[in-house]
Amino acid sequence: MKGWTASDIPDQTGRTAVVTGANSGLGFVTAQELARRGARVVLGCRSEKRGAEAAERIRARAPGARVEVAPLDLADLASVRAFAAGHKGDRLDLLINNAGVMALPHRRTADGFEMQFGVNHLGHFALTGLLLPKLLEAGPGARVVTVSSFMHVLGTVDPRDLNMERRYRRWVAYARSKSANLLFTHELAHRLSAAGVRLVAAAAHPGYAATNLMSAAPKMEGHRAKERFMEIGNRYFAQSPEQGTLPVLYAATGPDVRQDDFFGPPLQGLWRGSPVRSARATWTLSDTAGRGLWAASERLTGVRYEALAS
Question: What Pfam families has UniProt attached to this entry (predicted)?
Answer without folding.
Answer: adh_short
